[in-house]
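User: Predict the structure for this protein chain, please.
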Amino acid sequence: MNKVKWLWSMTIGVGLVLLYAAPSAYFVDTQGVYAGLKLPVFALSGLWITVGWSIVYLADIAVISRLVYYRKSVFLTAAVVFCGFLNAVWCIVFFAFGALGVAFALSVFMTALVLATAVFLMREESFSLIFWQLKIVWYAYSCIVCYYVFMLNHG
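Assistant: Here is the predicted structure, written as structure tokens:
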């Protein structure tokens, strides 16, 4: 029975992450837009950005799967998924519309939400916080890069 429960938990985790990862990966020309921007010297190349987001999505799958498997708070699971959906919105705002200022503001909000979610994870499912730390670091880095991209390209 535990193997079936584990398999369903993983399926739900993968399915939810695919719902918000697919639009940002397949429907927006991220590499082309990113290559055309003035970037700060500490910005990673497009390939490494893709690798970073892939790692974050794998961490999301792990966190969601654990929350579903152990039947933790539905509110917490929804918060984790909401963070992912906001990322899809951010990708559309940044890459499709080129609204760098709005994308930066959204990036600050997303980073704050990821930090707030970490507090709840610490209380409800502390093991998942190990995976969530990857997301915290990545979102903080992305927020800083987004700020500098906005400053270098808004004129």
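The domain at 2-153 is CATH 1.20.1260 (Ferritin).
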